[in-house]
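Postdoc handover notes: sequence design on the structure in folder B. Input tokens:
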């Protein structure tokens, strides 16, 4: 989805750079993820009357710099990414009216940082990124990360965390209960919550099917 209100040549240059920097990224944070977040962000921005150029550009550049989820400084990746975005935007001649809010949105977007931003555009980016953690694609990203970290799919004695606290550093499926199913209550905007409903329903359907397949 192409955003409205931004210079087409500038957008093309930024997109080329974002794609190049994501070329070695693991599947959960690759350029396909970036493109999905851009689409989510534009959809939400149009419904919520947010600035489409700010939202789309922030979404496009929000993975310029990443750290593995297991890295002790992973919660600081957004700060570094925002600086990378600022350098790129200035180099490419983006107007300051675009640079500052884009960098602010990127700085605060990460789930792990736990920041609730004031700016509407920053909230749109948070929601757009979090939506990509839900539904079929969210589960695919979860399993990709699980495999990358060499974690077992589920705890055989209690796969669905019915009598224990979810521990997604040890078991892949625990991530559903620790983070994915709490995403909807952390979304900021009505449009985002509406988009999340079908995706959450899919996760529940997946859990029901999984239970039927692994139950003794």
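Designed sequence:
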């Amino acid at each position: 989805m192409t955003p409205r209100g931004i210079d087409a040549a500038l957008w093309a240059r930024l997109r080329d750079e974002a794609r190049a920097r994501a070329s070695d990224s693991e599947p959960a944070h690759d350029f396909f993820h970036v493109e999905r977040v851009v689409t989510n962000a534009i959809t939400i921005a149009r419904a919520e009357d947010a600035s489409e150029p700010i939202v789309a550009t922030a979404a496009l550049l929000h993975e310029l710099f990443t750290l593995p989820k297991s890295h002790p400084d992973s919660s600081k990746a957004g700060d570094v990414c925002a600086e990378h975005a600022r350098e790129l935007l200035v180099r490419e001649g983006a107007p300051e009216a675009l640079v500052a809010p884009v960098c602010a949105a990127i700085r605060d977007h990460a789930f792990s940082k736990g920041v609730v931003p004031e700016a509407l555009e920053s909230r749109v980016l948070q929601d757009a990124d979090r939506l990509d953690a839900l539904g079929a694609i969210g589960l695919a990203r979860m399993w990709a990360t699980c495999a990358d970290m060499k974690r077992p799919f589920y705890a055989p004695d209690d796969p669905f965390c019915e009598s224990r606290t979810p521990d997604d550093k040890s078991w892949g499926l625990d991530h559903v209960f620790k983070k994915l199913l709490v995403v909807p209550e952390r979304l900021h905007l009505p449009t985002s919550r509406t988009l999340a409903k079908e995706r959450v329903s899919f996760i529940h359907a997946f859990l029901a099917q999984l239970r039927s397949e692994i139950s003794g």
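Context for whoever picks this up: The radius of gyration is 18 Å. Don't rerun without checking with the PI first.
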